[in-house]
Structure to design on (643 residues):
């Protein structure tokens, strides 16, 4: 996982636009997560995404305005093959989402990883997000340790969150900010330092499962 | 994440006795209330927007009602002309009877649907239920919870019935948006044969979307840019330059705009037209919308994301009557068969770009330098747009060589190093 050349983040210097593609099975909450991050609230009547949706938000990193472009993709496989291909072009970072209450959405992560690899994005910053952690009983939810093992295998940080809960708003924020900072610095990321830099809009990572050890998989 | 619980709040606000049901129209196509004893869909109330009615609409209503008194002797052309002309079929009461007639559904085809339990083993069941459960936006505001759930079950049954009847047809996300529009207007008995007609057959408009891959859909969407180009070359150039592609219009085409328009009245108005238009007509409507929004397109950055963002969100105040007239004119002036060479050229260009991209990816993975575009495509940039589209690679090289030769012939001095020294 060597990624420190300027090539992996094309357009960074000129435009300060980071393009993040959000992937995952149908109904895992990709649209709600991106909506939560960009609009700060839960999308009440979310619908199936047909093709590709686009949202963006400008964030500040070290006093610099950075535009995060989120490409929210359709989960159904038939859209993946020919249609979404075009949108992998110049992608800087990847977010893979699964539903913690639906093991099958977790099991298809392997095929999403293949997809990412086929687009040459294995060295791009990636995060794994288990969504809907407010749903079901603790027994019915996929065990964090199990998910963490897979996240470690692919070398990406794992987050568990809920796009629905207002209390999780900060956590959703921190997921995207993790990617943003990773893209910005391309240095081994110390997530703790985010708090100080952002000032009033600080990011708390209290719910993150392995804050200390995550650094090992975040850095290249 | 259960968004349903908010619905109970709305129960008291709903109004179900609103629309005036014409007794004389409850003919054979009107189905009886089903076991859930829910109201027939046409009794569902979407906000009626016009209090004032134009005289010509009042006149048209009278004429439609006259025809509905004795529908058997009315020619399908008559129904089509009602559906196409201004305001379309006006009311869901009329649509409920006329939509099945437009596509030639017969009474024998109206059958009772099977129960949901019988269908739940279908491999697409989960995907369909997932999408149906998320279709809340498509129901009339304030619909009682029980009624909405009953309609959603009917919707799932309707979709599964079609793909069980025609196993080679694949469900796509967006099909549920078409199905729900038919279900809300025509009810569960009539909407099944109606949806079958739209999905199966050589000229069925939804059939290309239901193939194994989305390739056929992609191909048909590619007709949009050539249509725009013939009407406004500069606009097409602007779209092309941004690299926006056709994805912004994909949900429009796949759902006949049902997914993307906020106003129910606009959706059913478009369906009136599409039910008696050629299968590719929605693509021409897409082109007409893009042409209508040309000023905004011109003032948008030539950036894929910005352009996608601008175009994919449809404004609520689009003048659809005008847009349909423009689309019809575009269709008459630019028949799909005429456009084929332009579409083929566009697809060739895309294919070349894709190959280039693949090559770049391969090199990037191997850690080598990104290659520049081949000589011919670099030269092509300097050619005028119409020439570029028509010209394959060899022609471009040949033309460039010829131009160079002519230039050298007329200005031989450039090849003499110091012409004056000879003296």
């Amino acid at each position: 996982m060597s990624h420190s050349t300027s090539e992996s983040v094309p357009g960074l210097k000129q435009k300060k636009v980071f393009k993040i593609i959000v992937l995952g099975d149908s109904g895992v909450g990709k649209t709600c997560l991106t909506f939560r991050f960009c609009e700060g609230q839960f999308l009440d009547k979310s619908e199936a995404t047909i093709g590709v949706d686009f949202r963006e938000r400008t964030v500040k990193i070290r006093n610099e305005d950075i535009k995060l472009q989120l490409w929210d993709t359709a989960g159904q496989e038939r859209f993946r093959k020919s249609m979404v291909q075009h949108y992998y072009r110049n992608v800087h970072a990847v977010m893979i989402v699964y539903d913690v209450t639906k093991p099958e959405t977790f099991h298809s992560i392997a095929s999403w990883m293949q997809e990412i690899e086929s687009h040459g994005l294995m060295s791009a910053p990636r995060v794994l997000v288990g969504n809907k952690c407010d749903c079901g009983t603790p027994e019915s939810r996929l065990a964090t340790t199990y998910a963490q093992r897979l996240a470690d295998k692919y070398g990406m940080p794992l987050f568990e969150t809920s796009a629905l809960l207002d209390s999780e708003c900060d956590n959703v924020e921190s997921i995207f900010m993790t990617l943003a900072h990773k893209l910005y610095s391309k240095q081994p990321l110390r997530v703790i330092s985010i708090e100080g830099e952002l000032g009033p809009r600080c990011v708390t990572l209290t719910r993150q499962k392995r804050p200390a050890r995550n650094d090992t998989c975040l850095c290249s | 994440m259960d968004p349903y619980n908010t619905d109970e709040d709305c129960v008291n606000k709903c109004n179900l006795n609103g629309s005036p049901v014409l007794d004389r129209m409850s003919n054979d196509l009107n189905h009886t209330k089903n076991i859930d004893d829910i109201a027939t869909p046409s009794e569902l109330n979407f906000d009626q927007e016009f209090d004032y009615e134009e005289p010509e609409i009042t006149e048209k209503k009278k004429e439609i009602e006259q025809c509905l008194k004795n529908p058997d002797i009315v020619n399908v052309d008559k129904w089509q002309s009602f559906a196409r002309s201004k305001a379309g079929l006006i009311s869901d009461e009329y649509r409920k009877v006329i939509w099945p007639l437009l596509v030639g559904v017969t009474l024998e085809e109206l059958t009772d649907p099977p129960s949901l339990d019988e269908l739940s083993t279908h491999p697409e069941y989960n995907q369909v239920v997932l999408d149906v459960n998320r279709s809340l936006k498509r129901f009339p505001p304030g619909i009682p919870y029980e009624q909405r759930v009953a309609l959603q079950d009917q919707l799932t049954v309707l979709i599964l019935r079609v793909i069980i009847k025609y196993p080679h047809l694949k469900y796509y996300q967006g099909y549920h948006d078409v199905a729900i529009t038919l279900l809300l207007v025509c009810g569960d008995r009539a909407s099944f044969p109606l949806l079958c007609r739209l999905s199966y057959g050589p000229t069925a408009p939804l059939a290309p979307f239901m193939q194994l891959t989305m390739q056929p859909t992609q191909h048909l969407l590619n007709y949009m840019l050539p249509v725009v180009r013939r009407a406004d070359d500069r606009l097409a150039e602007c779209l092309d330059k941004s690299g926006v592609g056709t994805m912004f219009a994909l949900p429009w085409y796949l759902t006949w705009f049902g997914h993307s328009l906020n106003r129910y009245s606009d959706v059913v108005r478009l369906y009136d037209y599409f039910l008696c238009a050629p299968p590719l007509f929605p693509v021409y409507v897409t082109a007409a919308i893009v042409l209508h929004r040309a000023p905004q397109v011109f003032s948008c950055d030539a950036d894929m994301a910005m352009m996608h963002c601008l175009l994919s969100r449809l404004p609520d105040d689009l003048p659809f009557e005008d847009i349909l007239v423009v689309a019809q004119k575009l269709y008459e002036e630019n028949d799909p068969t005429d456009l084929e060479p332009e579409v083929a050229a566009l697809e060739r260009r895309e294919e070349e770009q894709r190959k280039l991209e693949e090559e770049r990816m391969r090199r990037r993975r191997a850690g080598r330098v990104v290659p520049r575009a081949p000589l011919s495509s670099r030269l092509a940039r300097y050619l005028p747009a119409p020439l570029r589209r028509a010209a394959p690679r060899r022609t471009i090289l040949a033309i460039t060589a010829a131009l160079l030769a002519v230039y050298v012939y007329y200005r031989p001095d450039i090849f003499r190093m110091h012409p004056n020294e000879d003296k």
The CA atoms of residues 46 and 265 of chain B lie 8 Å apart.
